[in-house]
Amino acid sequence: MCGIFGYVGQRADVGSMVMRALSMLEYRGYDSWGVAVGQGERIEVEKEIGKIGGATVTLPPSTLGFGHTRWATHGSVTRENAHPHVGPSGRVAIIHNGIVENFRPLRDELRAEGHVFASETDSEVIAHLVDRAVMADPERPLYAVLASVFVRLRGLNAVIVLDQARGELVAAKSTSPLVIGAGRSGFTIASDMTALAAHAERILFLEDEHVVRLTARGVELYDRRTLRPIPPEFGPLTITEGDIGLNGHPHFMSKEMAEQPVVLDRLLAENGPAIKDMARAIERAYGTFLVGCGTASYAALTGSYLFSRIAARHVNFVVGSEFRYHEHFLTPESLVIALSQSGETADVIDAMLAAKRRGARLGALVNAKRSTLDRMVDHRVHLLAGPEQCVLSTKAYTAKVAALLLTAHALAGTYDEGARLVHLAAEGLRGMLTEPWKARVRDVAATIAPAPDLFVIGRGLAYPTAMEAALKIKEVSYIHAEGFAGGELKHGVIALIQPGTPCVVYAPNDETRDDILSGAMELRSRGGYIIGIGPEDDPAFDTHLPTPDVGNAAPLVSALPAQMLGYEVALLRGNDPDKPRNLAKSVTVK
Prior knowledge:
This protein has 16 helices and 25 strands. It is an alpha/beta fold and 590 residues long. It folds into 3 domains: 241 residues, Aminohydrolase, N-terminal nucleophile (Ntn) domain (Glutamine Phosphoribosylpyrophosphate, subunit 1, domain 1); 188 residues, 3-Layer(aba) Sandwich (Rossmann fold); 142 residues, 3-Layer(aba) Sandwich (Rossmann fold). The strands form 4 sheets. An 8-stranded antiparallel beta sheet has the order 3-2-4-1-10-9-11-15, with helices on one face.
């Protein structure tokens, strides 16, 4: 989940360039950061623990450099464990995203030869292996060295090696993403195309079977197993620096929440054919599975309700990390649809690879075009949400649910009705994003901010919304929040309610309203502070956050109150809403 970036080209202030790129990638990890540049015959390194913030480096101008922002897996958060890691000879350095699952036997092998390690990380093993091979045969091409080392690494990994003596970067990957950029002043490589927006006009996504060499003269691509040259095929970079700025907002989270109506408009305007194609694929399939992790899993669970309600179609839902324990049901007639913002989530990719081995057809609702997930599926709906830089997903969640609602209607032959509901939801969100409505949210946030615990309940279509609401609040505010099915209160949950415990109750105008209001009264009678979310107020509520009545599109407008509550409580508690502790945006490790 770490962020990595490299540059080779014209002489420049490469250290500052890398730092700016790392600040764009910091949502992938912010435990520590480090930068290395080539200088003469040496590799100069600066690294530090903590977030980048306003940090600068004092490295000399160079034609070659790279950097890393870390989400710690192996080894605690220390300067020694921060990347880059330099090999024993000082000639090569590496940065790494992923986990080397077999690093212990590799480290033991190297220690037996006299190698001394400066860190606790699995990553440093790669630096020693590459360095050993280079020093044993200095004339051997570095891309061939990395290819021979990479095959020994178990796990999902992306590695970039810097060789100052030869003035080159080489890289290889397994599932963990790497994108190469070509610009006027040189060539870049990063774990996410957002970091390339200021440097590249064309991009190339590195494939698992490739190894790449970058020099100031160009990009050379090779088959990682045979070392046969492959012509690199670049495509246009579709995002600009304007797409990834704050645009007047105080945080990316507030910006991305505010963009949700436009995202729904864009989905309606551009994605009808892809959504109808996905509906036809579901209709032809004998057994359809929706797969996602975290926020995407709650969107997928919402989809299972929507397909039942709208199209009378049973669609299975499985959490991505659990999918391989269900894969035995799959046949070549099955369809597995993954939901992902990044298209790089390790457990989702693993699930899709398992489905592919079973011969199943693959589909995706994915935000990142040309990501690993996007490139591996047979049917795709692009979410068109634009870059999502806050660690918490907001607009991509809304886009996923909208795409599922439209697909269910397309399957039922009522696409126009689905489009009408999504349009109503977009207009409703615009009304909710006004200052009077946000002021109501801030008042509620001030009330609940001191609370240690919070509970969210919903029934039917609102149940997965309750789960997502609890996730959003806990992720950013650090309040212990849990979502439950409203009918499960008396099966244990109500034992947790104490006087003053905040309880969020989703009460849409549907068949669940009477039952959920009964549950709200039970919570209130035990002292719970009831926050009602829905179109209508009720005496069961201590306070009410109104949402428009949009029928089956209710999940599209119900997510925003929880997103806003989490955001406002985070600010009151002094938390950074864009970078919650211990979390990172793209979960590319298992």
